[in-house]
Amino acid sequence: MANLVVDVGETAERRPDATAIGFRDREITYGAFWSRVGRFAAALRERGAGAGDRVGIYLPNLPQFVTAFHGTLRAGGIVVPMNPQYKSREVGHLLADSGATAVVTLADLVPVVQQAREESGTDVETVVAVGEGAADAEGATDFEAFLADEELDVVERDPDDVACQPYTSGTTGKPKGVLLTHENLGSNARATGDLMPGGFREDDKMLGVLPLFHIYGMTVTMLGTLFNGAAYYPMPAWDAREAVDLIESEGITIMHGVPAMYNDLINQPDAEEFDPSSVRFANSGGSSLPIEVMRRFEELYDVELYEGYGLTETSPVTHANRPGERRPGSIGKPIDGVEATIVDRDFEPVAPVEEGPVDEEEVDLDEITGELVVAGPNVMKGYYELPEANEAAFTERDGTRWFQTGDVGYRDEDGYYYVVDREKHMINTAGYNVYPREIEELLFEHPAVADAAVVGVPDERRGETVKAFVVPAPDADVTADGIREYCLENLAEYKHPREVEFVEELPRTTTGKVQKFELRGE
Known about the structure:
Blueprint: H1 6-14, E1 19-23, E2 26-29, H2 30-46, E3 54-58, H3 63-74, E4 78-81, H4 88-98, E5 102-106, H5 110-120, E6 126-130, E7 141-142, H6 143-146, E8 162-164, E9 178-181, H7 182-193, E10 205-208, H8 215-227, E11 231-234, H9 240-250, E12 254-257, H10 259-266, E13 281-284, H11 291-301, E14 305-310, E15 317-320, E16 333-334, E17 339-343, H12 365-368, E18 370-375, E19 382-383, H13 387-393, E20 394-397, E21 400-411, E22 417-422, E23 427-429, E24 432-434, H14 436-445, E25 449-459, E26 463-472, H15 480-490, E27 499-502, H16 516-519
Parallel strand pairs: 3-4, 3-5, 5-6, 6-7, 10-11, 10-12, 12-13, 13-14, 26-27
Antiparallel strand pairs: 1-2, 8-9, 9-19, 14-15, 15-16, 17-18, 18-21, 20-21, 21-22, 23-24, 25-26
């Protein structure tokens, strides 16, 4: 049987009293969790939702998300995860495009769902409400009342059947539904679990701070933890202080986060007092990890911080650094089962450099870089009902179906890969290609800079020019001229930011990625 949830059911049978989920001083055992999953699945079946039907989960990181996710799969359905910060127009697009027939959401967000139903012509028939006021939410059923009295057996699915349909961020157009199969998610959850020393252990405790609607939080933290019989501790929202308290009080052993989270930890006023000694593995993903953030985190806490790489379309992880195989500045080597290479515009392989990371001032990046392409059991089935997008995303060569990531990078002869930047983020100024990440890395080394992002902005003479947005460190004495001079001292003249703007914070998604389109004013 290929259904993803089978492994969790086997753990529940073997260790029913072990903790599956820890949430706000409450522990939910595997036995209790698996029973609720079965009752949720039965409730879906009672309301006509079964194999192949889509269920929207519009929630923050709560135990009900984990239950609804596994319950939908147990019933043979397909999960459509949705960002709880989305408004009715965004929710309406996801529900209408996917054809979801049921939605699980916070009681406070039921009106958003109802508005989306009215405005977008969705197929939603069932709305389940979670949290305070759920019993009184008009047009919805309280989550606890929704659960059936009996449990539904696991519905068999084929490895190639779709399990989850997350949506791309949509920064350059409408979000696209990504079809991820049971094999896609299962293979990636298992492979990423093997990256830690000794793999997952049943006594591990995972900090569940990455949003569950996002593929990184869904696969690597939630599925990886529960597949292996460990304990998952979800946090509904990111708060550095709360994360520190949870790590210390519960003895968290594994932390996955995005670079912005690690940057927040090291920039707390009392950062030196944080004791993460229980953490045996810390990993960063979601976007490029500045080397200076890695260095400061490790210097403060004596915990090695590893970096990996992935995309929604790849379930997500394709590359990772591992204990004994780590190279700062690299996204690591391909994980087990994944193939990767760097290709030019003619889809011919680009030769590797001898050893990376290279000094980007000493080489011509255009000669050593190309697009990162990947293949493997974790690569999506395709985009939902978008044949043209699928044709553009995949290239077949010698019997291998390669997914084109859109990321520019290079590789070295030792098998390590390096991402320079997103192709769409590259700045062309007076004929020179400038990669924002190189400048951002330098800015993070400045003692007066807490956070920074670099974009290209229109310029009459150069076409584009470089602009830096800088969040000053607390009590820092820094000027725009000072930032420009610092960059001129360390970079070629054409790369330095001719414009510098100080801001209180950078616009970020809930997964920590800087929304550069907002900085560009798009």
